[in-house]
Amino acid sequence: MAQIGNVTADQLIAGSSILSRPAEEFDNDPSVEAMWAMKAMEHAQILCSVDPKILKLTPHDKDIYKAFRENFPNMKVDKIDEDEFKSPQEKEKWRPFCEQFKDLVEDYSFGTLLRADCTQDYTEKNSILTTRIQFYAIELARNREGFNDGVRKKFKSSKV
Known about the structure:
By secondary structure, the chain is mostly helical. It has one domain: yst0336 like domain (yst0336 like fold, Orthogonal Bundle), CATH 1.10.3560. Helix content is 49%, strand content 9%. Strand 1 (3-4) and strand 2 (7-8) form a beta hairpin. It starts with a strand and ends with a helix.
């Protein structure tokens, strides 16, 4: 039977409904993160098949990216330090950013996995549970600023 970490495929499917709840309801639960790994891999496959600079994640990419860089002009997006990212000070900065997309981006506050280091694959150690709008903001910045280019090159060279 297929298994991710200590979670079987049947457990992933049975627990998938839990993922529709807001991210703030979850601690860093490895079983929840494993469930999201399946969803995150879909994004990685898309990222590898299309030039990241032209990849559209939402109909609102331009607005999300603009607002992100206005609110977080110096944030490094290639490698995210989870402790810093989830610090009380950063949470206070993120809250108004996220809320501005409440009525614009579907499921903006739902839990989504983000790669801490964009040069690495989704693994338990390289995954951070974030809100969907944070994921979009950071991945859009990675795409537009060239940080996800290496993923596509790595994927193409591994298929040869």
